[in-house]
Design a protein that fits this description.
By secondary structure, this protein is an alpha+beta fold. It is built from one helix and three strands. The chain has a three-stranded antiparallel β-sheet with strand order 1-2-3, covered by helices on one side. It starts with a strand and ends with a helix.
């Protein structure tokens, strides 16, 4: 069994001289726990990735940029998790 706990964080990355936000950073933190059939923990591991995105003059474009940033981070973190699990079980 694989249990995932994923949290998303959004923080201001850049402001201009007038205090207007120009760039955000999206961070995904994932805690992964792999258990065997008897529910005994095999391993627990934390993964994290972040992606920056630009604030646009049109709000819908900013939302689109945020969605793309989340998708990029989610793809990266899923690749990291799969790679780690493959390496872990190949070495056993």
């Amino acid at each position: 069994n694989i249990n995932l706990n994923i949290k998303k964080f959004k923080e201001v990355k850049n402001k201009n001289v007038s205090g207007k936000i120009e760039k955000y950073s999206i961070r995904l933190d994932a805690n992964v726990e792999v258990t065997n059939v008897q529910r005994k923990s095999i391993f627990t591991r934390a993964f994290s990735t972040s992606t920056d995105y630009e604030v646009m003059s049109n709000h819908s474009d900013t939302i689109s940029n945020e969605k793309n940033a989340v998708e990029i981070s989610a793809n990266q973190i899923s690749e990291d998790i799969v790679r780690f699990i493959n390496i872990y079980f190949q070495s056993k």
